[in-house]
Amino acid sequence: MADWPAGAPTSLGGRYAQLVAITIATELDRRQWSQRELARRAGVSHVTIANITSGRNWPDIETLARIEDALERVLLPADRLHRT
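RE: above sequence
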């Protein structure tokens, strides 16, 4: 994801969105879930998950909370954001 979506994000929000996307992708891999499975569990569309992980869209707070609930974890501990 080094080129996500078009190079390294320069804004704090962009870095946050990128780390969220990386964490989601890592969790999907670890759990051997598809994007559709996460979407089903989170109550969002699979297109939403695909757009977040590809960098096309940043998640809103409601979507982020639903994904965190489905994964049963916080997606981005605050200390990770400031170490990038």
